[in-house]
Write a structure and sequence with these properties.
Blueprint: H1 2-5, H2 31-52, H3 61-78, H4 82-96, H5 104-130, H6 135-159, H7 165-192
Length: 193
Amino acid sequence: MEWLTNMPYCPRCNAEIKEGDKFCVYCGAPLVSETLKTVERRKYVRERDTCFGEKEKDYLGLVSLGFFLLAVGITYTLNTNVFDDFRFWIEKLIAEKTIVRPPSELIFSATIFLGASGFFSFIKAIVRILTNDVKRRIIADIFSGIALVIFAYLINLYGTGTLTWQTTLGTEIIVCGLLIALYSIISSLLRRR
């Protein structure tokens, strides 16, 4: 990266320049701003690579889409009226202008969808382990699976009347917070190695 700050040649006309020149003496091109633009552009690329994984491609993206579609298909197969149930519930919420308990079929569908999604997250983590994928992504898949399975269980408890919707929502928020904190800690420890 040293060549960016000590550029011996003009980026426009390729003429030799002196260190500290602000403009090329041959073509008049601004040298300092070109250098800064190059540095900023490279910095953005480096930050993007760091945030999204340096030259890591998530080849399981299509697998994730396939698992999502499987979860939707399983849910729809077990309750072919899921969209009507959802629409009915939304209309009831609007009409009564208060929180209304969803139909039991919709609660069942949510439980199935979240449970299936969690199960598929675990399968995706196993595939990542078998293919020696990035450890942070494996952990993310495992934690996503844990969160989804817990959500499915909590919604099931809500459906049976064991929990109120407020307790269910509060517990889900606590679970998300704990899993995000754990993931952040483990991820930072893995980066240091």
